[in-house]
Amino acid sequence: MHRAHTAFSLALSPKAHKNFATWLLKSTSSQQMAKATAAAAVRTYNSAAAEPFANGSTASYVEEMYNAWLRDPTSVHTSWDAYFRSNSYTSPPNLAPVQANTLPLTAFNFGGAVGGAAPDSKTIDDHLAVQAIIRSYQIRGHNIAHLDPLEINTPDLPGNSSTKTIYANFSFGEQDMERQFKLPSTTFIGGDEASLPLKEILNRLENVYCNKIGVEFMFINSLEQCNWIRKRFETPGVLNFSPEEKRLILARLTRATGFEAFLAKKYSSEKRFGLEGCEIMIPALKEIIDVSTELGVESVIMGMPHRGRLNTLANVCRKPLNQIFTQFAGLEAADDGSGDVKYHLGTYIERLNRVTNKNIRLAVVANPSHLEAVDPVVQGKTRAEQFYRGDQEGKKVMSILIHGDAAFCGQGVVYETMHLSDLPDYTTHGTIHVVANNQIGFTTDPRFSRSSPYCTDVARVVNAPIFHVNADDPEAVMHVCKVAAEWRATFHKDCVIDLVGYRRNGHNEIDEPMFTQPLMYQKIRKHKNCLDLYADKLIAEGTCTAEEVKSVAAKYENICEEAFALAKTETHVKYKDWLDSPWSGFFEGKDPLKVAPTGVKEETLIHIGNRFSSPPPNAAEFVIHKGLLRVLAARKAMVDEKIADWALGEAMAFGSLLKEGIHVRLSGQDVERGTFSHRHHVLHHQLVDKATYNSLQHMYPDQAPYSVSNSSLSEYAVLGFEHGYSMTNPNALVLWEAQFGDFSNTAQSIIDQFISSGQSKWVRQSGLVMLLPHGMEGMGPEHSSCRVERFLQMSSDDPDYFPPESDEFAIRQLHDINWIVANCTTPANYYHILRRQIALPFRKPLILCTPKSLLRHPEAKSPFSEMSEGSEFQRIIPDNGPAGQNPSNVKKVVFCTGRVYYDLTKTRTEKQLESDIAIVRVEQVSPFPFDLVKEQANLYKNAELVWAQEEHKNQGCWTYVQPRFLTALNHSRDVSYVGRACGASTATGSKAMHIRELNALLNDAIST
Ligand SMILES: Cc1ncc(C[n+]2csc(CCOP(=O)(O)OP(=O)(O)O)c2C)c(N)n1
Ligand SMILES: [Mg+2]
Question: Which domains does the chain show, CATH number per domain?
Answer without folding.
Answer: 121-211 (1.10.287.1150), 243-578 (3.40.50.970), 602-866 (3.40.50.12470), 876-1006 (3.40.50.11610)
